[in-house]
Specification:
The complex is a heterodimer of chains A (505) and B (164).
Chain A (H helix, E strand, L loop, with lengths): L1 H12 L2 H19 L5 H8 L8 H26 L10 H47 L4 H18 L4 H16 L1 E2 L6 E2 L5 H4 L4 H20 L17 H5 L2 H16 L4 H16 L12 H24 L5 H12 L6 H6 L1 H24 L1 H7 L4 H18 L4 H19 L5 H23 L6 H4 L1 H38 L1
Antiparallel strand pairs in A: 1-2
Helix pairs in contact in A: 1-16, 2-4, 2-16, 3-4, 3-9, 3-14, 4-5, 4-13, 4-14, 4-16, 5-11, 5-13, 5-16, 6-7, 6-20, 6-22, 7-20, 9-18, 9-19, 9-20, 11-12, 11-13, 12-13, 14-20, 18-19
Chain B lengths: L2 H5 L2 H23 L16 H26 L14 H20 L1 H16 L7 H26 L6
The chains are: A mainly alpha (505), B mainly alpha (164).
């Protein structure tokens, strides 16, 4: 695989269009990621329509550029505004902002940049190392395993979504319903169309994702009003003393490995990785009291972890076709739009494309490093713009993007409808991401479920007779039941402990 | 009751099952009223299997959530605060104006429609843009012209989307 990577890297370096797309993706990713109110998911969703006309390889190079760079972009606003641009930058602000307030904003940004780059490279290496091993195992998968893996993916994503797992699961079910709208692919039977042409061609992934991640977020931000933020305007010198930078290698190494491993667990997400990474650094530090007051290790470890998660999150998406989080769900949507289904067969049929993904991530990291060093002062000026003004442009991008799929206003109507649905869901504290996962994974689940039942002559036991499928379903069931029974368990344990204490007294 | 329970908004507790319940009702209405999906397709369980499974889970889940909300109300575990209905008008008008762009776009073209939309909403939302009104207006004109111009160029010229 490393040979494929190097061969493909040479090929890409000889293609100016791909290099330009990666560079544009990286700069857009940094800019959008650093703007408060525009998350990595939203950046990817609104830029997804731009990739329609591109070849699959070009599209993935561009989108991975946006994805990887927006992760670093999120740390810029965390350091300068004390507002994390992305969930993964949530702990960067704890030490980044105090460091910026003490006149060392440039140093904090550079530490974040170097850590992100190194973390990203470790994540990429882990992706290249682990992916073929998982694919070798997944080659044994048949329809029952694929169906069970899809249920597992949906459940884990609902489990990891903010708020209640049950609400997340229900949102996933709504996504599955949306995925069934239109003609059934096997029997060509229309479903849920109500006789309207608007629904006959089904609900496309793009208007739905643009609506719930783009327009709904804009509506929510507008409703909240523009936050009055006190940005640190003077960033000072950029490069910290080399000795202090080299002294961070342990933190960066630990953060990177932790991030890549946690990121590879479906639905674990970068927020968990950075939190664990930060706590670990504080525990290992000789001066834990410095944490929260501008400790460079408090930036280096979580930032390395955050970007290492990018490579890790691509592992389940590329090998099993299960998106690790909402960002990889949009990347998966882009592959599906271009007729490529992620999973073990992608490695067998299109090894060149898999190598292109690795190269895309590598280029994105390099361009983020370059732009982060060269243009950081210009990028920081963007933070002075009122966010609401940018949100109006983002809305227009959602509008044109939805229209551009099939040059059809029906998709714009669907986009607005899902924008409103996403807004209502946010008001009701229902996680929105599982809805998109349901739409993406629904057709895969239905196809494999029906195929498994055809092969087993209608016997549902096929899902529990096969060990991998049974294990995946058992874990899914546990994930659903655990939040329901855990309060009772905790209560029982507390009562038991109190009783023991009484007995002792 | 703990603090969390005291802060619980029962409007949300009822709103969630109503939201999911509506999806289930609309789904069942579509499936039960469609005789063709129930056709026997031999070994293939047919196009009705997934809808029936998913809608059953959705319905059961909505009923459980509704029952929980009723239980919480009977136990006076929370209050009907109606927070979900507050400050709705700006997002509602915003969504409506996006939808309104569709017919307007076919009358006066995308470029003019987008310029009106961008200028109008930037004026409404530009309270954070400091400075006197002349400077603010100039900045809004520049921002809307640059933003819309760039978008139209990328989609109409580079990607070749036939915008009206």
């Amino acid at each position: 695989m490393y040979g494929d990577f190097l061969g493909h890297l040479t090929g890409v370096l000889g293609t100016p269009e791909l290099i330009a797309l990666s560079a544009i993706g990286a700069i857009l990713g940094i800019v959008l990621g650093c703007l408060p109110g525009i998350s990595s998911t939203m950046s990817l969703a609104i830029l997804l329509p731009v990739t329609y006309a591109m070849a699959p390889e070009a599209a993935i190079v561009f989108l991975i550029g946006v994805f990887s760079a927006s992760v670093y972009g999120g740390s810029i606003s965390a350091i300068l505004l004390n507002i994390p641009g992305t969930p993964g930058a949530i702990v960067t602000q704890l030490d980044g902002y105090p460091m910026a307030r003490s006149g060392r904003a440039g140093e904090a940004l550079t530490i974040a940049l170097f850590s992100s780059t190194l973390g990203g490279i470790v994540g990429l290496l882990v992706l290249m190392l682990i992916a073929p091993l998982i694919v070798a195992g997944a080659m044994q998968f048949r329809s029952p395993e694929f169906a069970a893996a899809t249920v597992f993916g949906l459940t884990m994503l609902a489990y990891a979504s903010p708020g209640s797992t049950f609400k997340g699961l229900m949102a996933g079910l709504v996504g599955l319903v949306c995925g069934m709208v239109g003609f059934d692919t096997v029997t060509d039977t229309p479903r849920f169309t109500f006789g309207t042409t608007l629904l006959e061609s089904g609900i496309d992934l793009v208007p739905l994702t643009v609506g719930i991640f783009g327009l709904a977020e804009v509506m929510r931000t507008i409703e909240l009003g523009s936050a009055k933020t006190a940005a640190v305007e003077r960033i000072g010198r950029l490069i910290p003393p080399w000795r202090s930078l080299l002294g961070l290698w342990g933190s960066i190494g630990r953060g990177s490995i932790l991030g890549a491993v946690v990121g590879a667990i479906p639905a674990a997400g970068s927020a968990i990785a950075v939190a664990v990474s930060y706590t670990q650094e504080q525990r290992l530090s000789r001066h834990p009291e410095r944490f929260g007051k501008g400790a460079p290790e408090g930036i280096a470890a979580p930032e390395a972890s955050n970007n290492a998660c990018v490579g890790g999150a691509l592992v389940p998406m590329m090998t099993l076709g299960i998106p690790g989080d909402s960002m990889t769900a949009i990347l998966m949507a882009s592959l599906l739009i271009h007729g490529l289904r992620p999973g073990p067969m992608l490695f067998a049929d299109r090894p060149d494309f898999v190598a292109a993904v690795y190269v895309a991530l590598f280029l994105a990291l390099i361009f983020t490093l370059i732009f982060g060093l060269v243009f950081i002062r210009q990028i920081v000026r963007l933070l002075q713009l009122p966010p609401n003004i940018l949100l109006v442009i983002v809305t227009l991008l959602c509008f044109v993007g939805a229209f551009a799929i099939r040059n059809n206003v029906d998709d714009v109507i669907v986009m607005v409808a899902f924008g409103v649905i996403g807004f209502i869901m946010t008001r009701l504290k229902i996680p929105i991401a599982p809805l998109a996962f349901g739409l993406i994974l629904g057709p895969i689940l239905e196809e494999n479920l029906r195929r498994a039942l055809i092969v087993s002559d209608g016997s549902w036991l096929v899902f529990v007779e096969r060990p991998i499928s049974a294990t995946l379903l058992a874990i899914s069931l546990l994930a659903v039941l655990y939040p329901m029974i855990s309060p009772s368990l905790r209560k029982g344990l507390k009562v038991g402990r109190a009783k023991r204490l009484n007995d002792v007294e | 009751m703990d603090d969390e329970a005291n802060e619980r908004d029962l409007t949300v507790e009822f709103g969630v099952p109503v939201f999911f319940g509506l999806w289930a009702v609309i789904g069942w209405w579509a499936i039960l009223g469609d005789s063709y999906v129930w056709t026997d397709f031999g070994l293939d369980p047919g196009p009705v299997l997934m809808p029936v499974l998913v809608l059953s889970f959705l319905s059961i889940g909505a009923v459980i959530m509704f029952a929980r909300a009723v239980l919480l109300t009977l136990r006076r575990d929370g209050r009907f605060e109606g927070r979900i209905f507050r400050n709705l008008w700006i997002p509602a008008v915003f969504a409506g104006s996006v939808l309104l762009m569709v017919p307007v776009m076919y009358r006066i073209g995308f470029l003019a429609t987008a310029l009106i939309f961008a200028f109008g909403w930037m004026c409404v939302l530009a309270e954070a843009w400091h400075g006197n009104w002349k400077r603010r207006l100039l900045m809004i004109v520049i921002a809307s012209a640059v933003g819309v111009g760039l978008l139209t160029y990328i989609f109409a010229e580079v990607i070749r989307v036939p915008l009206p």
